[in-house]
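Hi! If you just cloned this repository, the fastest way to understand the data is to look at a raw example. We've pasted two of them here, unedited. The first protein comes first, obviously.
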Amino acid sequence: MNITLILCTQNRCESLVKALESAAALTLPDSIDWEVLVVDNASTDQTRDVVDDFRSRYPGRFRYLFEPQRGLSFARNAGIRDAQGDVLAFTDDDVLVEPAWLGNLTSALLSGECMGSGGRIIPVWSKPLPNWLSTDDPHTMGPFVAFDPGTGAGPLTRPPYGANMAFRKQAFEKYGEFRTDLGPRPGSEIRRDDIEFANRLLSAGERLWYEPSAVVHHPAPESRMTRDFILRWWFWFGYGEVVDLGRPKARWCISGVPLYLLRRLVMWTLRWTISIGAPRRFACRRNVWYIAGTIAACYGWTQRQNAPSAAVTDADPEGRPLQNGAPR
């Protein structure tokens, strides 16, 4: 088997139908043997019935796997272990993929040129953006799963996102699976399991490839275009950075929280208060929530470090600052 497309899902049977329809319409050369593996992460709706329908309509193309341990990382790892392909592609249960997407995404992996790849993720807006939200601010756009480094294909020096990424199965055999302390699960909205794994490969010197012609369309529903959703997303993003990268080193701390983070919290709160213009005010408020999430994670670091399931170490030996757009 050349390619396994792993699609994890949980209680989204309606959007899953559309996602699988787009997967069924994928076009690849006859010489490439490929499958779609749907990993049902303990759904309680009609997910099994939806997949069974596609299995009957497209014999040999779709497979079903049930993963009882709730959490996206658990589902992805179950898919990795069950996949038959030499190359494993990943996408979400609420996206639409273009017909040439899978072939374009995996071309550099099938040839052995690269260990991983990523493609473009284009948001599909359900309504016009509110006046306090600006597409010119890439940080504010984070919750909408947009990924578009440009129109030119070439080496990828930043992690791709889980809705549009692929790796050779060898990568998981060599570097391990997705970390289960990252990735959304019951009681936690931490993400970054995809980012952490790709960073693991980049740190080891593996080559990743960006393919802009591998296009996924990701819905941006009205429910995400709210202040509450975006602020909550950034709180957990800050929290997840500490779980992933470790507590940042600092000379002065209070209860494990670096004093400079408290200073930044005060500074951005003041900027939020005095800023003029809705987009600017919201950007400052977003930074407040991001820093609050970072502080919360630092405060609970000792408990996480001692937990049996924790797979993180202390901060980077060089004491590097937080990454991926952290406000300074």
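Ok, and the second one:
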Amino acid sequence: MQSFLQRFGSLVSGVLHGFDRLVFRGTLRSVVHGRRMMVYLSRMRVLMKDFGAWAQERSERIKAAAKQMAVEAGRPMHYLNSAKVSKEDLARSSAQRDHIQQGLITILSAVEPCMAFEVHCDRQAKRIEIRSRQRQCLHLYYYLMHPRFGFMHVRVQACRRTCGAR
């Protein structure tokens, strides 16, 4: 840290001291709530009855893109069926073992709790709507070694099997 400050001190306006990482979280605010998702689906011309298949198809595309990325980079992709396995430790050991200095280290996937949308029939109001609820979803963890920022990961949520169905 001191060598960094000596070299770039004139460009630094402040220093944060704390934990060993910085976490950025992002949400697509335009579709984070059920009513907003319904507006988005309407604009995409997706009928409520087709939502499950529509969401599942997008999830399959996300998973296929992850697999293709791993294949093109010549890096492994693993499904973890236990929460007891440390994804970070596994990725760090893979990077060390394979001498990864830059680029994709591995892609790990695991089923974990998440918030996801489902079609809900409100019989009293006589309408169909999209609601979010707690469920189990597949998460893809892309572990990367960045030349400037070092070890990092990106987590992407995808549905599994009957996403959106009730």
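That's it. A detail worth noticing about the second one: The first helix runs from residue 2 to 8.
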